[in-house]
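Service request form, structural biology core

Requester: graduate student, group of Dr. S.
Request type: structure prediction, single chain
Budget code: on file
Notes: please return the result as C-alpha cells.

Sequence provided:
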Amino acid sequence: MLILFQKTEPSVCLKYNTINILLAYTYMVMRYNGEHHDMCVQCAEDFVSLSQVLLTAENCKSTSEAIRCFCASLKKVPIKPSPSAVPSVFSFAYAFTQILCV
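Core staff response, request fulfilled:
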C-alpha cells in the first residue's frame, strides 16, 4: 500500500483543503467548549456541515478560498458560536497557514 503513495506527488489542493477542514474542526470544538466527545453525532454533523471540502468534495485552490468557503459555510449553517469562537478560529487559521503555506 505504501508504494501507491510514493508513486505520485500529493495534490496541490491538499494543504488548502486541510486548512478548510481544520477551520471547521476548530470551530466545532470551540462551539462545544471542548466537550464535543459527549455529543458525537451532533458534532459530526456540525463538523461536516462547516467544511465544504467534506460536504461537497470541493477543492480549495488557495488559502483565501479555504477561508472563504469556511465563512460561506458559517452563513449557511444555523450554528451560533460562543462570542470568542470566531476570532480565535481565524487566529488559528492565520497561524496554521503561516506554517503550512511557506
